Amino acid sequence: LQSDDQNVQAKGKTNLEAVYLDLKKLDSAEYYFAKSLEIRLKINDVNYLHSTYVDLSRLYALKGNNTKSEEYLKKGLEYCEKINSIFETREIYRNAVIEQNKLVSELNEKYQAEKKDAHIQLLNKDKEISDAQLKRRSFERNVFIGGLILVFLISLFIFNRFKISQKQKKIIEK
What we know:
By secondary structure, the protein is mainly alpha-helical. The protein contains five helices and no strands. The chain has helices at residues 2-22, 26-42, 46-63, 66-82, 86-173. Helix 2 runs antiparallel to helix 3 (46-63), helix 3 packs antiparallel against helix 4 (66-82) and helix 3 packs parallel to helix 5 (86-173). It is rod-shaped.
């Protein structure tokens, strides 16, 4: 009877671990995985130990701990062999491949996003540099034009003074 109670407890903890895993609350899921595993090992529940180990493998893969993920996957496969479950073994391998493909896909998407962000930042820096150069060139052009206008006005003033001085000399000579 106690074994049945513990089996129910283990199933309850398995359900909680699955919920937390789906919610991506990995620390809580890990806690319930450990409790479920502890109970299943205590009552020697070989029929469900394989799935607990495989689920733990999935959890550690999501946490990025590939060493532990592989370790638990191997333990799950060992228990599948103990109960001679070819179907379960095939499912474990299939799920492991699916999880690996998901992880590779997620990592690739993350890499592509980071690469795109870096490219955008580089383009923004290039734009800032181009804008600064354009402002500098515009300022230099405006200073040059202003200088030319100033030289022209001074020349005009000097020419005007020269003409006035010429007229005064003519008047004085008469």
